[in-house]
Amino acid sequence: MVRMMSVLAVLCLLLNGCTTFQPSSQQKAGAGIGAILGGVAGGMIDKDNPWRGAVVGAAAGALVGGTIGTIVEQAAKEAAQKNETVKYTRTTSEGWKEEVIATPQEGQQGDYKLITVKTIRNGKVVSEEVKQVPIQ
């Protein structure tokens, strides 16, 4: 277990040093929530070694959560630029259908366009927020 954690720590440091990528707050939030949920689920699923399950689940959850955060950001920016509804759809490896729908609101607020973003999983709205996207 210690060996696996050491390898993960070194890998993170190496990858961090190779890029200037700065994740958005949406990506950070998605990755954080995904890591927490994945860690809890992984710990419960791996009965033989719950710590291993938690680490693997947290890593997978962070990756999926960060990806969804990226999709939400991209959809909001695209909807603001086009001034029309944008929809992204994917099917997860577990067979879940996920949709992100970004819809511009009428008018604007100062230098920002207001975009309503809904995240839908298997036909149920799991989140809805209004984002302020800078007008370019």
- Rough shape? elongated
**Helix-strand topology string:** HHHEEEE
Rg, Å, rounded: 18 Å
Mean pLDDT: 76
State the strand order across the main sheet: 1-2-3-4
Q: Residue share in helices? A: 40-55%
Largest sheet: number of strands, sense, barrel closure: 4 strands, antiparallel
Number of β-strand runs:
4
Number of helices: 3
Kindly list the characteristics that best describe this protein.
4-stranded antiparallel β-sheet; alpha+beta; 136 residues; single chain; 51% helix
Protein architecture, described:
This protein has 136 residues and is an alpha+beta fold. It has one domain (2-13, 23-134). Helix content is 51%, strand content 26%. The chain has three helices and four strands. A four-stranded antiparallel β-sheet has the order 1-2-3-4, covered by helices on one side. A hairpin with a 5-residue loop joins strand 1 and strand 2. Helix 2 packs antiparallel against helix 3. Residues 17-22 have low confidence and may be disordered.
Brief characterization of the structure:
51% of the residues lie in helices and 26% in strands.
